[in-house]
Every structure is written in structure tokens, then in C-alpha cells.
Specification:
Elements: E1 10-15, H1 31-45, E2 50-55, H2 63-68, H3 73-97, E3 102-106, E4 115-116, H4 119-127, E5 131-135, H5 145-156, E6 160-165, E7 170-171, E8 183-184, E9 186-188, H6 189-194, H7 202-211, E10 215-219, H8 225-230, E11 237-240
Helix pairs in contact: 1-3, 5-7
């Protein structure tokens, strides 16, 4: 049987920080989970796909949650951005252990540990077959890492955003509360807005909708799903302009 060709050539993989934590563990970064994630990324990389990653920091620090507990919001958000750099370095270390050349680009300058984000340099790394990890969000407070993923996807001309979550797609209601919740295989941006479905935060969603960048929401916990998504197999929910 002939090998399938990738459906997407350049992707942005959006990972939450919580994806790196093992359930019930006090350790914010599970070496076992990170090892599985980077193994899946290497599989996709071997297909010749150009991979950029945007990582969250919620396993270490959530700026919005801290601001609700009384911390000044700007400071709390900057702390969250620094947490994403820690996660990015963890991914880089494990990817390079597997022989995948990786660069971390930070939206906050910290030259000792990461490159500054420069769009053309990021694109050149991708063209050379390096994985690029975008850390520190957008570099500005009040913006989520969902927004960072949408922004970077637009800047580098990505074909799709693969949003890795703990659910297997977008539902018409909360599947944890409603056993009859319906999962969508595909959605248009208009339908998602009309139904008030939570695909990404509103700023990120608008950026993708305005620039017609598809969003694929899928379950990260199912090993092999990143590769299936890249090959165009039916995984999760695909949100498109049409």
C-alpha cells in the first residue's frame, strides 16, 4: 500500500501547558508525557511537514487565575509567559534527544536561552526542516496562547492550526454533562459563531476566521492523532471558512 502524503505542509501545533502534566501529579512536567508528545512530533516531522509549536504555561502558572486572586494582571500574565518558555525548553530538549533540530523563539527577549521571535528567521528554520517552538505567547499581557497560535500561524503562513485538547472535538454542549452531546466532524466559522461554540478564545478565533486559517480540534491523549490529523484522516472537528 502506498504511503499517504501529508494533507498539510506547514502546521502550527497548539499545546496547552496542562498537556504536559500527568493527572493527579504535583510535578508540572511529566517526562513520560513529554516523551510521547515529542515521539508523535518526530513521526510527523519525518513526513516532511514543517512544524511550529505554540505552548501554554498553565501547568506552571495561569496569569488570569492569579489576577482573579488579587495579583496585578499585567505582572501575572508576564509570569505566565515565562512559564511557557520553561515548557518550550522542555520540549526542545526532548526533541533534540531524538535527533530533531529545534529552535525556541521567545516573544520576550532572553538571548541566553532562546532566540527572539523574527518572522523571516522562523520561516527559514522551518524551510531547513527545524521544528520551531514559539514561547512567551504574544509578548503582551491580556492575550492568551490561543491568540499567540493564531497570530503566529498568520505570520508564517501556516496551512492549519492543530489545537490539541483533552476532548475529541467540538460538541454542541458539554459532553461531560450531557451524554447526548453531539460532536461535529466539520464546522464553518459562521456556524461556530452562531451556535456560540467555544473553539478558541474570541480574539484567536477572529484572526483565524478573517484570514481563513482552518482550526482542527482533536484529542491529544490518543497517541498517533497528530499524524492522523496531518494526513487528513477523520480526527476531531475541523473548522473552516466554508
Amino acid at each position: 500500500m502506498p504511503k499517504k502524503s501529508p494533507h498539510y505542509k506547514r502546521i502550527v501545533l497548539k499545546l496547552s501547558g496542562e498537556a504536559l502534566r500527568e493527572g493527579g501529579s504535583a510535578d508540572p512536567i511529566s517526562p513520560t508525557i513529554v516523551a510521547d508528545i515529542v515521539r508523535q512530533i518526530k513521526e510527523v516531522h519525518a513526513l516532511g511537514v514543517q512544524i511550529a509549536i505554540v505552548i501554554g504555561g498553565g501547568n506552571i502558572w495561569r496569569g488570569l487565575a492569579a489576577s482573579h486572586r488579587g495579583m496585578e494582571r499585567t505582572t501575572a500574565d508576564y509570569m505566565g509567559m515565562l512559564a511557557t518558555v520553561i515548557n518550550g525548553l522542555a520540549l526542545q530538549s526532548q526533541l533534540e534527544e531524538l535527533g530533531v533540530h529545534t529552535r525556541v523563539q521567545s516573544a520576550i527577549e532572553m538571548q541566553e536561552v532562546a532566540e527572539p521571535f523574527i518572522q523571516r528567521r522562523a520561516e527559514r528554520h522551518l524551510e531547513k526542516g527545524r521544528v520551531v517552538i514559539f514561547a512567551a505567547g504574544t509578548g503582551s499581557p491580556f492575550f492568551s496562547t490561543d491568540t499567540a497560535a493564531a497570530l503566529r500561524a498568520n505570520e508564517i503562513g501556516a496551512d492549519v492550526i492543530l489545537k490539541a485538547t483533552k476532548v475529541d472535538g467540538v460538541y454542541d454542549s458539554d459532553p461531560n454533562k450531557n451524554a447526548k452531546a453531539k460532536k461535529f466532524a466539520t464546522l464553518t466559522f459562521h456556524d461556530a459563531l452562531t451556535r456560540r461554540l467555544e473553539v478558541m478564545d474570541s480574539t484567536a478565533f477572529s484572526l483565524c476566521m478573517d484570514n481563513k486559517i482552518p482550526i482542527l480540534v482533536f484529542d491529544m491523549r490518543q497517541s498517533g492523532n497528530i499524524k492522523r490529523a496531518v494526513l487528513g484522516e477523520r480526527v476531531g472537528t475541523l473548522v473552516t471558512a466554508e
